[in-house]
Structures are given as structure tokens and as C-alpha cells.
Amino acid sequence: KRITFSGIQPTGIPHLGNYLGAITSWVSLQNNQSSESELILYSIVDLHALTIPKDAEMLRKSKIEIAIILLACGINPKKCLIFEQSKVPAHSELSWILNCIIPIGWLSRMTQWKTKIQEQKNIQSIEDIDISIGLDLGLFTYPVLQAADILLYKSTHVPVGDDQVQHLELTRNIAEKFNKLYKKNVFPLPQTILVPAKRILSLKDPSKKMSKSSPFEYSRINLTDSPKEISQKINRATTDSQKGISYSPDIRPGISNLINIYSSFTGLTIEQVVNKYENYDNKMFKDSVTEVVIQHLQPIQKEIEKLRKEEGYVKNVLEDGANKANEIAKRNLNEIYKIIGLYH
Ligand code: ATP
Ligand code: MG
Q: How close is the Cα of 74 to the center of ligand 2, in Å?
């Protein structure tokens, strides 16, 4: 049985990176299910959001807002389960069990906590960061909870952005270790599903990925940004002074990022985009990117406006999703508890 799981944190408003790197792929997986026996779960992972301390009220609001945006982007609750992670306690329970078999060394090699600390504390070089730096345990063990999210449902496929590839590799290692330790094939090794866009970069600093949690608002385009904001942000985007448009992620990361965005939205290949715009200057190309982004987001934003007035419906969708997810999660956790000797 094919089981797909993925998550998004309620740490802010989803941006173009979330959209092109994850949400569009969630929608197409949902729409191209091969059989009724497939199961797809998309979770608003609020426990993960606690690793970046937030005001309680903001977190509450952010969760509903994310649900609205997912639905507006085409996630269909008739074809998959959408739910809040904290409504399914088995995520935390399995996470503890996995914690007990994971060497700290496996986690210290992960780069996500380093890049987040780097931004929080404004540290220049990532090489200067180690676990003695004043790191909260939750941020450090984040990938364990993530592995629990995935393995709890015995997921086989996980559609994520390129920044999560390392955590998925870790998840497979954890699954393998558990299976070996208890001599049972409990967890399938989940496969990473990547879209061609892979990684959308920060408009401010194209050496980093676009992130919800970055303190720099103009580093990202939120799915709810007005045409004016989109235009201002793209115009301000860091590029270079080289003439013409060409694709070279290492030498021209800023322009290449815009080409990637343009290509993802239009369905043109990178090569086709470059051929079309090679003689344009940066400003003219930025105008074309702006136009495509605004055009594409317009129907989604209309749908968001509509759903904002139907909070009752959105809450029902989440509740229904949580009920169904809980059923599967409890069954699987029960099996795991028996295997490790907690239950008779
Ligand atoms: P945060 O900064 O709080 O971690 P985020 O922007 O990284 O937020 P997440 O909720 O952590 O968003 O990730 C949701 C999904 O979006 C994941 O599958 C992740 O891989 C993907 N994703 C996040 N940022 C990008 C990006 N810049 N490009 C492509 N995919 C991305
Ligand atoms: Mg993230």
C-alpha cells in the first residue's frame, strides 16, 4: 500500500518556496492517486512550530490560516487527510520511543538546526556552530519528531523540498535501525519525492533558502502578498550586474532563482526561459517574473478570501482529518508498543 505523508509548520504564511517545493506536489499526488487503497496525509505540524517560540495566539491563528491556504491551493479533504499534528498524540509518543534508539551524533550532523541558530543569533559562519552554543533540545531533536510523523503511518512516500532531504535520509536510518533491533519489518523505508523546483532561494540572500521563519519580510513572497508587495519584493531581489539573463546557480544565484521561479510557474524548461529572455536586462526580466507570479496567485488569493469567511467549515475539515488519522495512528502505535514490550 502506498502511504504518503508530509507536513508544514504553522510558523508563518506559506511562501513561494513552500508552494513550488511542496504544496503543488501535494496537490498533484492527491489528484493522481492510482487506487482507492492509497492513503495521503498532510499535517499542520504545530508541535514542530514550538521549536521557534511563538506567541500562543499567533500560533492558533497561524494554524487556521495555513489550513485555509492549503485548501485554497487545491488540497482536497475528500482525497486526503488534513490535520493538526498535536491532535494526534501518537506523534509525540512514537517520538520518545525513537529518541531512545538515536545516537546524538546522528542529529549533530543535521544542518537545519545550525542554519536556524545561525539566523537567530546572527552568526556569520555555520562552521562556528556546535551544540554548546545555547541550543534548545526541541530544535535539536526536531528530526526525531519528524521521523515519528512519517513512520507512525508506515509511510512509503514523502514529498518535501530539497532542504528536507537530509532529514529523510535520517528517517530511513532510524527505520532501519528499529527494524533490525526488533527483528521485524515494522517500518517501510520511506522514499523522498522531490519536485524539479527543489529549492527556492531567499530574495535577500540567495545563499539561503526562502523561509517562513526568516526575520526579513522581503526575503520571501507570501502566498497572500498583494500585487504591489510582490512587485516591490521582486524588484528589490538581490541579483548581479552581469548583462543579460543566464542560468548559473553557483555564479548567479539570484537571477537563477528568478529563472527557477519563472520556469516553475509557466511550465517552461530552464533552457526555454533563458532562450526567451537572454537579451533582457535584469529589470525587464524581473517585471516578467512579477507578472507571472501575480497572475498565478490571483485565483488562490480569491479562494483564500472566500475560505476566511468559512472558518467553521475549515475547523470541521481539520477535526475530521484528526479523527481519521488518530484511528490509524493508534492502531500502529499499539503494534509498536507490543513489539518493544510495553504492552502484552
Ligand atoms: P520554517 O522557516 O519555519 O522552517 P519553512 O519555510 O522552512 O518554515 P516548513 O514548514 O519548514 O517551511 O516546510 C514545509 C515544506 O516546504 C517542506 O516540505 C519544505 O521542504 C518545503 N520548503 C520550505 N522552504 C522551501 C524552499 N525555500 N524551497 C522549496 N521547498 C521549501
Ligand atoms: Mg523549514
A: 21
Q: Which are the catalytic amino acids?
A: 116, 209, 212
Judged by its nearest atom, the ligand closest to the C-alpha of residue 163 is 1
Q: Please, what are the domains in the chain?
A: 3-193+313-340 (3.40.50.620), 217-306 (1.10.240.10)
Instruction: Give, using CA atoms, the residue closest to atom 7 of ligand 1.
Output: 211
ipTM over 0.95: yes
Separation between Cα atoms, residue 336 and residue 110, nearest integer Å:
26
**Cα 14 to Cα 211: distance, rounded to the nearest angstrom:** 9
Cell of 303: 479562494
pLDDT tens, position by position, 242-280: 999 999 999 999 999 999 999 999 999 999 999 999 999
- Contacts of residue 100, Cβ cutoff 8 Å, sequence gap at least 6: none
With a Cβ cut-off of 6 Å, ligand 1 is lined by 8-9, 11, 17-18, 21-22, 52, 160-161, 163-164, 199-200, 209-213
In this structure, the residue with its CA closest to atom 16 of ligand 1 is 18
Ligand 1 atom closest to 210 (CA) = 27
Query: How far, in Å, is the centroid of ligand 2 from the Cα of 233?
Result: 21
Per-residue pLDDT of 165-221, as tens digits, reads 999 999 999 999 999 999 999 999 999 999 988 899 999 999 999 999 888 999 999
Report the separation in Å between the CA atom of 160 and the middle of ligand 1, taken as the mean of its atom positions: 8
